[in-house]
Amino acid sequence: MAKILSLRLNYKGKFLDYAKEGKEIKKSFTIGSNKFLQWQILDPSFPDKHMFIQQKGGEYVMQLLPGAQLSCEKGGNSVDSNYLKQNNLLSGNELVLKQDIKGTLTLAPNWDVEFEYREPWVAILTAEEMQIVAQYARREKPDAVSRFNRMVLWLVILLSIAFLIIFDLFLKKEYIVEETIAQRLQNIQAVAQRVTPDLPTTGSFEQPAPVEAAETGETAQQGTPGATGTPRGSSAFSAFAGGFDPNATGVAPDMNIVTVMQGFSARRPGGAGGGGTGDGPGGSGPGAGSTFSASAVPQFGDVGAVAQRAPSGGGYDTRPEGAVGAHITGDASTLAPSGKAWGDVVKQQQIARDYAARNVVAFKEGSVAGLDEAGRALQTTLREQVDNRKNQIDQAYRQANLRTNVSFSITLFISPSGVVRESIVVPAGSYPESFVARVKSIVDAWKFNVPGETQYTFSIRLRAQ
Predict the structure, then answer these.
(1) What is the value of pTM for the model shown?
(2) 274 and 348: one domain?
(3) Is 451 among the domain residues?
(4) Helix axes of 373-400 and 433-444: crossing angle, nearest 10 degrees
(5) Which of 131-140, 235-244, 248-257, 314-323: highest mean pLDDT?
């Protein structure tokens, strides 16, 4: 019988699960830390999904992760990676699985996979096992209580269906549309009334009787000699000005009205104006260039409630919608500028140009364009390692007690040993210099598990509680 590929997953040397060709392994077999996969490797450094086995040209090829340890046997003899490469069995990170090859691959600490070709086998049950299967492979007959409960349940269901049918056919009232929408709108407009609110008044004015001439009995008119006009002694302005008619003059005068604490007075340019009961200017004396009598000016009471609100252009007491404010506590000169890198910018630019000149792969959080399988796996590893360390920045943010949302764009230049050679920390807002310096010192102290030099850019946003 032909042999089939068989994989055995172990955790700390203990067997967990099998994967066989034709069942779990078909044209490919994927593993990873994703919870929806059959083989889930619970290790923070392991990628979310990894194409472990793939069929190429009628043979199965195993995709090795960077840093994975491989021990292999061919024909019962141990072989190393040089032998595999010389016999075209290992190329890059791909290992061709021949039928005479078996071995063990360490995926992560405490996780390894054994692979080999085996002949398929079928389990043969003993007589005792077959008896147990026959006993529990069929349902047990229901007892009297179960049958009664089922009957009651079916009876309730049938009665409910019958009641719904009777209610729908005989008991439910039919909804009759008495009028159309247009008729309803017409009826509403017919009964609608115009409501005019009563405006509150802050004072009362009484229109004085017009001043009559002593000899003629007609309304007094004063103005420029020779001017003509219609008598307007009964108008509001005539009452205010003591019977003076501006239409009787050559040019209508401009009036300046001044509100004082206890009363008011009317004044025109060049004249003393009419008198009033207040203490303001122009309270007494005849107006210059006017011939009307001061005694004919009506007297008014206290009108101190004339002004009820400030001019509309004075300002606003409500916050504009959508406004964003920056809460600054302390000296604003100690804030780091927004959008500018913190630290030794010249050194950061030199290192950035050095990495670009040597074509060091630059990874960016959330961007996988142009990356191969190995590049995506490395980016996933970097993202998970950075996510595990972001809580250090969050802790520094809580200690700073800023009480405002903050965000940063951070670029890490990682050396072959995994330490951060330099970082570019760019705040997206004006934050205290001490806090920005603390964030940079935190990321500069990070160390990563990477196979070589790399560049990684990510962003972090912290929200106030």
Answers:
(1) 0.32
(2) no
(3) yes
(4) 140
(5) 131-140
